[in-house]
């Protein structure tokens, strides 16, 4: 009898984990799934984070274009108030994407004239994307799916499905595919 009395505190400590939570004496059990409310919170947090990164990326592009047109040197740190530590990478990627030094035309250069050729599949998109541009190809796939599925022409509906650094390329592919005739 005395043995059981001495053994009971030891047995009780085996039913509590290191954080003081009760555990089953019959071994670990699978964790409980998230409640609907917790899963909604997690989903909303992910969406908020993606929206913040997209917003920081777009602010980076706008700030870079403003700096470039003003003739300022390329430095995203100048706009430290436009991003947080969590969105710095997205802002910097947008800034790098949007900064293009203004180039004066060469003396004697002729303005660009359209040539009489069949329309390019990249019409209105500037220069054609590289042959192996994954963001353009992904956008093209999404554009075809939306057009065939009868959904509206909205590349913004797929924000978060692609790397925000390649937004322009994704949107070009999407618009090209959506407006293509079969």
Beta-strand share of residues: under 5%
Number of helices: 5
Mean pLDDT: 75
H/E order of the elements?
Answer: HHHHH
Low-pLDDT stretches are 102-106, 108-125
Description of the molecule:
- With 182 residues, the chain is an all-alpha fold.
- The radius of gyration is 28 Å and the shape is elongated.
- It has helices at residues 2-13, 36-70, 88-98, 134-149, 167-179.
- Helix content is 48%, strand content 0%.
- It is built from five helices and no strands.
Quick overview of this protein structure:
Helix content is 48%, strand content 0%. It is mostly helical. Helix 2 packs parallel to helix 3 and helix 4 runs parallel beside helix 5 (167-179).
Topology:
Elements: H1 2-13, H2 36-70, H3 88-98, H4 134-149, H5 167-179
């Amino acid at each position: 009898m005395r043995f059981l009395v001495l053994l009971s505190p030891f047995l009780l400590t085996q039913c509590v984990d290191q954080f003081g939570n009760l555990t089953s004496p019959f071994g670990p059990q699978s964790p409980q799934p998230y409640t609907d409310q917790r899963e909604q919170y997690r989903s909303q947090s992910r969406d908020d984070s993606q929206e913040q990164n997209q917003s920081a990326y777009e602010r980076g592009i706008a700030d870079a274009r403003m700096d470039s047109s003003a003739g300022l040197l390329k430095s995203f740190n100048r706009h430290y108030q436009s991003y947080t530590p969590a969105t710095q990478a997205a802002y910097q990627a947008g800034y790098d994407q949007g900064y293009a030094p203004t180039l004066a035309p060469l003396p004697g250069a002729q303005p660009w004239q359209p040539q009489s050729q069949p329309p390019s599949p990249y019409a209105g998109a500037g220069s054609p994307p590289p042959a192996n541009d994954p963001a353009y190809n992904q956008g093209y796939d999404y554009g075809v799916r939306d057009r065939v599925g009868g959904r509206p022409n909205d590349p913004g509906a797929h924000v978060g499905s692609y790397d925000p650094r390649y937004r322009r390329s994704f949107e070009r592919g999407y618009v090209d595919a959506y407006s293509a005739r079969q």
